[in-house]
Design brief:
Elements (H helix, E strand, L loop, with lengths): L5 E5 L3 H15 L6 E3 L9 H18 L4 E6 L7 H10 L11 E4 L5 H8 L13 H8 L5 H12 L9 H10 L7
Length: about 180
């Protein structure tokens, strides 16, 4: 059971929502009622722009809460580096993110489907826009992604090293250390 009373998820789309909520529920025993996903555009506009526009408001509300709360921000890096996206998100906060503040950035390179492909045993290349969306797009939004996410959550919970993971997944694991102690 999570020690955090509330986890707010700010994401681009259904695939992001599915990935992070399954990761938290199955891997860390987070009660589904403790997770609030900010409603995303769902096909009515850019998910990336939505995350960028809502971040200020959600971070401001997050910082006003006295209960143990986590703000998980998930945004695809696309053609940018993970560091560039982090810097962009940091600029959108009301004030700088503190070192141990429980605002976490999960930034897959190109798409979350890249991580699903890696977890399925594929050798992925994040440096080129190789789209795994065509193969893993529907899987990432359905229960068929659960075994891949569950495997990652278990390895993460037990501190088991991943074999040749994509750089963006390594960065996400490093970000995850911000909240590990309250899950």
């Amino acid at each position: 059971m999570s020690k955090a009373s509330r986890i707010i998820v700010l994401c681009e789309d259904r695939a992001h929502e599915m990935f992070v909520t399954r990761f938290l529920k199955k891997g860390w025993g987070v009660n589904p009622r403790a997770i609030r996903v900010v409603p995303y555009p769902s096909g009515r506009g850019s998910g990336k722009k939505f995350v960028e526009q809502k971040l200020f408001e959600e971070a401001k509300a997050f910082r006003c809460r006295h209960a143990s709360t986590i703000l998980l921000v998930i945004q695809d890096a696309d053609e940018f580096s993970v560091e560039q996206v982090k810097a962009n998100l940091d600029e959108r906060l009301p004030s700088p993110r503190e070192k141990n503040e429980q605002i976490v950035y999960i930034i897959p390179r190109w798409h979350i489907e890249t991580w699903i492909a890696y977890l399925d045993g594929m050798d992925v290349d994040e440096t080129e826009k190789v789209t795994y969306k065509s193969t893993y797009g529907k899987i990432a939004e359905q229960k068929s992604a659960h075994p891949f996410i569950d495997s990652l959550a278990e390895k993460c919970r037990k501190n088991i090293d991943l074999i040749s993971p994509p750089d963006s997944l390594i960065a996400a694991c490093e970000e995850f250390t911000r909240i590990r102690n309250i899950l």
